[in-house]
Amino acid sequence: MADSPPTSRIARTRRFGGLVAGQGIRWAGTQAANRLRSDEKADAATGERAAATARELVKQLGQMRGAAMKIGQVLSTVDFTAIPESEREEFKQTLATLRDDVPPLPFNKVEKLLKDELGEKLSDVFSEFDEEAFAAASIGQVHKATTTEGKRVAVKIQYPGIAEAVETDLRNMQMVFPLVKRLAPGLDVKALATELRERIADELDYEVEAQNHRAMARAWRDHPFVHVPAVDTGRSRRRVLVTELLIGRRFEEIKRLPEAERDRFGEIVFRFFFGTLKHLRRAAGDPHPGNYLLLDDGRVGFLDFGLMRVVDADYLEGERALAQAVERGDAQAVFAGLSTLGYLPQPDTFDPERLLAQIQTAGEWYLEPGFRRLTPQYVGDLLDRSSSPRSAFFEEMRRETIPPQALLIRRMEGLVLSTLGELRAGADWSGLGSEYWGDAPPSTPLGVQDARFWGLA
């Protein structure tokens, strides 16, 4: 169990400042010493410093929770190009422990909030309640319980004082970014800050999440290989969310499964998020692996719908038409689509052929036909070629913008790609994708089942 996270503005600011100052001094010392080392020894020293930084980030940000922890979670999806390649995966895995292995608070630290939100004695609401949390994240932690009707449920409780702590973190997080830039020079830290602000505002209100969750559970009910747990509306509140309890294998265990099982899991992940966008017009903004469980019956359970946007039908159709134009290699249609959707503030300054090449590069993993096995190394290389300052299209990127309705779509695509890379999943991703943006017929046996569920076959 962890101690209570610091909630006062001064304490949290001091924690941020201490983290950045201490690591900044150590990085400066390492870089100074590297001038006297061989290239091989300098790379090794930088890797050691990166690993130490990762451990300290996990320790400090994990203890703080709130927006501080969100920074670590988001960074676990970033490719740290300044770190020797042999050290990158370990660094990302260390940061990713914030996603799945957050130390929960003792029950007495959240008990009063739970009782206040429910407005009743726990014994009047639950016949059994496990006071030891079985999962914890940046905003709240989850306990197992049994309702008075005998149903097993998961009870997510928001940390007391976390809303105030988050606001302080959002003001202080600029201090962390110089340190992050040393590890990932190509990262757009301004975009990261905007993303964190948008994400956390919704996540602090569990009633918003409950609405999203209920819509997802209704839409995917009785699906052959996807399961979204039901929400217990009567017991959920603004800072308490009660859902059906799911038990299954988590992502680190799934990554060790045989290749065929990983491929099946990866296809289901792809189909769930792209299918949610196509059939429900909902872009899920937090598709990280900590929100998936492989159930004993082979279905995959999906959790956490705090950040979600319903995309306008006309806008989504424009995105689908854009993908089809890229697939055809139609540069003029790509240019027209990007202009209409709002990606090009000054359309006349762009070359259609360059725009087509840019999107073909960024989306090659699911636009180029044929089987492709994704790996962390491939994902890192693709991001380097398509979205870093070293990209051949960096000048175009600096003059482009992402329309508000596309923000979560692009984030979803990026995190799904990162997840599939970690999983080392293989498929004809273009064949799968064409079912969603091009209405192509099912390309796999799972696709046939999915099409029947949605009434398309």
UniProtKB/TrEMBL annotation:
Coiled coil: none annotated. Keywords: ATP-binding, Kinase, Nucleotide-binding, Transferase. GO terms for molecular function: ATP binding; kinase activity. Residues 98-332 form the ABC1 atypical kinase-like domain. Pfam families: ABC1. Belongs to the protein kinase superfamily. ADCK protein kinase family. This is AarF/ABC1/UbiB kinase family protein.
